[in-house]
Give the backbone structure.
Amino acid sequence: MERWGLPAELVADVELVTCELVTNAIRHSGAHNPKEPGRCRLALERPTPDTVRIEVTDRSPARPVKREPGKSETGGRGLALVEALALDWGVTLRPVGKSVWAVLRART
């Protein structure tokens, strides 16, 4: 991302969303692929000069579910965070598994 010359704030947001999506893939896909638990693929693209598209693919067919965690829970806020930071996000089902993607734009 440094080579792309992106603003530091966008780089920080991309890093955070990437971490959330990869963590979810590792945490939740192992049951569907016990021989390769936690295996996923990450792709970053720059569709326009001020946007970055993140895509994390795993072998689990289960769609991620945004939930409302209790105040004392330490997890469960990842997709809410992705939704708050992303211009758009979604899920693409694959023949084996799925891809969860998010598009982020530099803040103005």
